[in-house]
């Protein structure tokens, strides 16, 4: 075996994608000392996307003070990639659930303003290509906060600015975009969006994602009505269909805001990442691909890293092995999507806490055993 490409995601709560790739390579190298092991940590467009793209490009992490989802200041990170003109922003860094204690979540008033401040920061640093990952938001404001940070004014019937949050959108009477940052017209946005929900309705932002952001039944109804009104106002202002476009409901309606005001395309997060890290070029001349994530199960086929990597590998005619921290119900489904074999790191009955504590040792041992099997196969 001449070359193996190692392209895993992180093992959530225990190992970063870079650490996972390093441990897999170490385990393999002990059994395959003459094989080229190319490490290419990746992500699916959610948590870890910033790290994966900075690792791949040699970019710079930038820390910035922004407005958090509860309208209070916090520090968030974004990255300028190695090409000097592309930036990657994770919405969750500025406007994510991670910043709001569970008992304080309130999508009626939470704001995405901080995400807009990160975009403005990227523009100030010269970025003209921006990758925006939408996962993990705490907001249901239709992206109005993000656009407010970029110059859009949301006014009520009396010409007064609306307060932050999704509930206030019910009072929207006029959209003033005359002060929208003119640099946006020079930009290209790739929006990492792994859901196809419309803005409103039974499959919309409020109904599907509102409860995890703190909305009860009455709040969901109020927010859905507010976003429906907001969607009509957006369409009237922009002269195009917005609310029913697949993905418009992503991140509490951030997809709708992007479609209305940003020069963008909504794409699967895994495809954005794999293109950005150059996976296809890395696969040239490879004999095998090894991928993985913290848990492999029946849900892995829906936009997760191992499946995205496997699909690219199959386009090159390559076999694929996936290593998971654990294997769950329905994991057999991955075999229909390009993964030829799966291995679990945990080799004994254990608690979750113990599995996380010993994740590194378990992963390296599993990779060593995979390497031993490959070595035996090359001798036979």
TrEMBL record:
UniProt keywords, alphabetically: Kinase, Transferase
What Pfam families does UniProt report for this protein, alphabetically? Gly_kinase
**Entries under InterPro entries matching the protein:** Glyc_kinase_flavodox-like_fold, Glycerate_kinase, Glycerate_kinase_RE-like, Glycerate_kinase_sf
Extract the SUPFAM superfamilies matched here: Glycerate kinase I
Gene3D superfamilies found in the cross-reference section: Glycerate kinase, domain 1, Glycerate kinase, domain 2
Q: Does the keyword S-adenosyl-L-methionine apply?
A: no
As one GO molecular function, the record gives: kinase activity
Q: Which family does it belong to?
A: Belongs to the glycerate kinase type-1 family.
Q: Could you identify this protein by its name? A: Glycerate kinase
Source organism of the structure: Vogesella margarita
Q: What is the lineage of its organism?
A: Bacteria, Pseudomonadati, Pseudomonadota, Betaproteobacteria, Neisseriales
